[in-house]
Design goal:
The complex is a heterodimer of chains A (about 220) and B (about 190). By secondary structure, chain A is mainly alpha-helical. Chain A has 9 helices and no strands. Chain A has helices at about 5-15, 20-25, 30-40, 45-60, 70-110, 120-130, 135-150, 155-160, 165-180. Chain A is globular. Chain B is an alpha+beta fold and about 190 residues long. Chain B has 2 domains: about 10-40, no CATH class; about 45-185, Immunoglobulin-like, CATH 2.60.40. Chain B has 4 helices and 10 strands; from the N terminus they run H-H-H-H-E-E-E-E-E-E-E-E-E-E. Chain B has helices at about 10-15, 25-40, 45-55, 60-65; strands at about 70-80, 90-95, 100-110, 115-120, 125-130, 135, 140-145, 150-160, 165-175, 175-185. Chain B has a 5-stranded mixed sheet. In chain B, a hairpin with a 2-residue loop joins strand 5 (about 125-130) and strand 6 (about 135). The radius of gyration of chain B is 22 Å and the shape is elongated. The N and C termini of chain B lie far apart (about 75 Å). Mean pLDDT of chain B is about 70; it is low at about 1-5 and about 45-90. The chains are: A mainly alpha (about 220), B alpha+beta (about 190). The interface between A and B is large, with 74 and 66 residues.
Chain lengths: ~220, ~190
């Protein structure tokens, strides 16, 4: 991945419509973006299409990048928003379908045949991805970025636009959801931090006397 | 395999094992075709000119207004906090139909936000205005950081005919979204 002036020059070329330059910028991020998409796609085959849609959105928005953050953080923020938009839009259209599938799906995740040593790695991975896709959206991106991709708290906070404390809270709650989906024991609810308890939780408020929203 | 009650570390280790590069499977070639078909990145339009000003000290606002040929500065709108939908208590201001108005939207954040997605849309009857002419776009969407505190964004608009219009402004960061309206009363004059 180019750095410094080389990176800036590459970004400038891409902003002027040089597709090859944009692809060079993306090269080291493609595997991560494609994995990221798996957590938000309807199904495995749809993940690459979702990833491409998000990357096209990033390309079309490239002239809005103003070098005020790392390019990678900007890219992942755009991609994440695109994934969330797609998932929320889909949720409205497909809620009835998802509900009709849920009992069987849940049984498959939590009450299916007890996992044992014969379960190979691919099956385990598919099972984890399937469970991740059912974790609430607000926790899902943090889980993927931190637990799978190995981003730091600061990096996830920059991508999500929230304080580090909120990231930690989302991770904790996301893992709890994930364990529950996998049919594994969860921590007692009282022991978990809640987002609203985090100091400095991100809120947009009016500059006048407008009461702040809760969670 | 994992048993109930396993440690958080174990779950994280299993998740980390998902970091496997997917097979190429023509992904790059397909992406290339779609990128080429999309054409060049969008031109930011008025926002490129707004950005340098948006981060400047407050005293520079009148300078921006003059440079843009603005004849009237009419309103300061506050984004009020709620999850979605108009607030019903929007800021209102009169705008002469013969003049361009700069609506200053103030996004106020408790803490700095690295990346907020901002969207401004106009109804029929109002147009964005830049470089002495109306813009065809009815909505603009962009991503920008927000400082802790006030973040004023000036938006030049013009009414095409008298009437009452609602300009919608929304901001999203993380899983939070705020939206509000500015009511503009376009009057003769």
């Amino acid at each position: 991945m180019p750095r410094g002036d080389d990176l800036d020059a590459l970004i400038a070329r891409a902003q002027d419509g040089d597709v090859r330059a944009f692809e060079e910028l993306l090269a080291s991020h493609l595997p991560q973006v494609r994995r990221f998409a798996r957590a938000f796609a309807v199904s495995e085959p749809d993940a690459d299409d979702l990833a491409q849609e998000a990357l096209i959105k990033a390309y079309k928005s490239l002239r809005l990048f103003r070098y005020q953050s790392a390019f990678s953080s900007w890219l992942y923020a755009i991609v994440r928003n695109a994934f969330l938009d797609a998932a929320r839009s889909r949720a409205g259209r497909q809620r009835s379908l998802e509900e009709s599938l849920q009992p069987a799906h849940t049984e498959d995740l939590a009450g299916g045949p007890p996992p044992d040593e014969r379960l190979d790695r691919d099956q385990e991975h598919r099972r984890l991805w399937r469970a991740l896709r059912q974790v609430p959206l607000e926790f899902r991106a943090a889980l993927v970025l931190f637990d799978i991709e190995g981003c730091t708290y600061d990096e996830v906070a920059a991508i999500e636009g929230v304080p580090v404390g909120t990231v930690k809270s989302r991770l904790s709650r996301g893992r709890t959801h994930l364990r529950r989906l996998l049919g594994e024991e969860a921590e007692p609810a009282a022991a978990r931090p809640q987002p609203d308890e985090e100091p400095g939780t991100n809120q947009v408020t009016a500059t006048s006397n407008v009461p702040r929203r809760g969670s | 395999m994992n048993n109930p009650g396993e440690s958080g570390r174990d779950l994280r280790d299993r998740l980390r094992e998902l970091r496997v590069d997917p097979p190429e499977s023509g992904f790059s070639a397909s992406l290339h075709r779609r990128l080429v078909a999309e054409g060049a990145p969008r031109t930011p339009g008025i926002w490129r000119r707004i950005w340098p000003v948006a981060n400047a000290p407050r005293l520079l606002w009148p300078g921006f207004a003059l440079a843009a040929g603005v004849a009237a500065i009419v309103a300061v709108a506050y984004l009020r906090e709620h999850r979605a939908g108009p607030s019903g208590s929007a800021v209102s201001a009169d705008v002469p139909a013969t003049k361009v108005a700069v609506v200053r939207v103030n996004l106020s954040a408790d803490v700095a936000v690295e990346s907020a997605q901002i969207r401004v849309s106009l109804p029929e009857g109002l147009v964005f205005w830049a470089d002495g002419q109306a813009l065809a776009q009815r909505a603009f969407e962009w991503t920008q950081p927000l400082r802790a505190g006030d973040n004023e964004i000036p938006i030049a608009v013009r009414g095409l005919r008298p009437g009452r219009y609602r300009m919608t402004v929304s901001a999203r960061f993380g899983d939070q979204r705020v939206e509000d309206e500015v009511v503009l009363e376009v009057v003769d004059g």
